[in-house]
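Message: Just now I want nothing more than another pair of eyes on a protein record. I am handing you a single protein, as its sequence and its fold in token form. As I understand it, each token names a local backbone shape. Take your time, and here it is.
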Amino acid sequence: MADLIKLLPDHVANQIAAGEVVQRPSSVVKELLENSIDAEAEHIKLIVKDGGKTLIQVVDDGMGMSTTDARLSFERHATSKISTADDLFKLQTKGFRGEALASIAAIAHVELHSRTSMNDVGTYLKIEGSEVVTQEVTATARGTSIAVKHLFFNIPARRNFLKSDQVEFRHIIDEFQRVALAHPKVAFQMFNNGSEYFNLPRENFRQRIVHVFGKKTNEKLVPVEEETEVVRISGFICKPEFARKSRGEQFFFANGRFIKSPYLHHAVVSAFEGLLKTDNLPGYFLRLEVAPKSIDINIHPTKTEVKFEDEHTLYATLRAAIKHSLGQFHVAPVLDFERDGNLDMPYNFKDRNAQMPTITVDANFNPFFKGSGSPTSKGRIGKKSTEGWQDLYDFDKVDGGFSKLQVESEVVNAEIFESADETIESKQITFQLQRKYIVSTVKSGLLVIDQNRAHQRILFERFLREITLEKGVTQQLLFPVELQFGKKELKILEDLTHDLNQLGFDMDFTAEGPLRIVGIPANMPETSIKEVIDAILVSSLEHTYDGFSRAEWISKTMCTSLAIKNGQGLNQDEQYILINDLFACKEPKLSPFQRKIYVIIGANEIENKF
């Protein structure tokens, strides 16, 4: 039998490795930015075009590479970060495998300019699909500039799986923010399609957070500081009143590297227990510094998943540190047993005896005196007048008699007490069950409707019609509502401006200021503005719209936020209108999320119960 196992060619092996390292343009951004950090750059510039599909370029002023190093950097498993296996347990750099540049060069066109401070000239290298096309000497600035063009040019199937430019750009923003937050002492610039998007100077950690997420973030932050033999914790948590349903402001950094840790996230959430609304998540920017030998980061190609040696101690320390900060800065209620109770009383009233209140009575007041003023000046009570006292008890003189009198506690309900000439069939009889279901009668039995799902269907079809066919009516706000968001969230809303305008929203975007909402859809309550906008952002950030058109996704998000909730009481008219609107829909049987809206309990089924 012939031998079946053979070695793969290098270009095939590199493309396979690229599938693990380079999942989308944001993966390239992450690897290139981390390489610049390892090169001890003080200023890093990121240039992106068309969501990274056309161009991703990173320019830094780091130490640069020699001619030999520039060529070797694109070979697999070629690295300057480690030399032995023991080095994996004392890593101080971001990259160490030597796979990133080789994987990127296998599926893109790469151009590299690099020069060290010791050389007067640098190196220019051009690679297409792992093949070196050009390598020559060039004049360039100190540092490295690497441009990645036409990503996945030789793997069309992978390129077809990429999302729209807007979605891919959001992923790039995520990676940029993670690297920028982890290294506040490095200046960053970011350009998208020729316009500047971020300009972050060298600063401290708090200033970097504020510059990335907006000026209003500063008032949200509560500092956290704790140092033990196992870990040193520093950073900030957000006050409970600023908690949101999205995960946009949750960052863990371990030894200067962004990580994801559901276990540590649970420690933070448990520290906020009792302080957050249902489904809300706290925001945090926490940096953990542990001994390099106590953390294993070599368990996933993206290096965002790590393993700590003593997770239980880390969990308890982190939870205690956050609880301490919440109490120390008066964010959470605390009991102070050393408080002097005498201080609760104003100082001026201390040791003062209680005084009985004095009452002044006018002894000359006469309610039956018919004169123009008080009784005689001599203080004598005038003659009492008792004329007409019978009129107080003569009800025949009251307008309309007893038929027009109403007792204060009386409730008149014409719906329940119908007039004799009104038949039951002239008005549909409905009632609400457990403030969740609307029950009515049909020819075949009883109709039971889920009020929340029914209203979702009504609103969904209305919003979908307004986005696709006609523009919704806008009600202008007397006082515009201002909402503060980061640049990433503002970019999402800016991309959705057309669809939101069709629904009836009227929004003003400013470069550095808050989002101003001056008009909202006609049937939308003003109190729901922030809830609706947050719901749209959460849905976009968590990519729950995959598989749906933009109009369907926005309509579903809006109807979920604005629909009548279970537990909300409805009067007879509201129940009647809801039923009529439901059966006027194109699809009254199922909610927008394919759940059954109503059931019919047949008369035979009811009879069988007896």
In short: The chain has three domains: 10-200, 208-328, 448-598. Confidence is low (pLDDT under 50) at residues 372-383, 407-426.
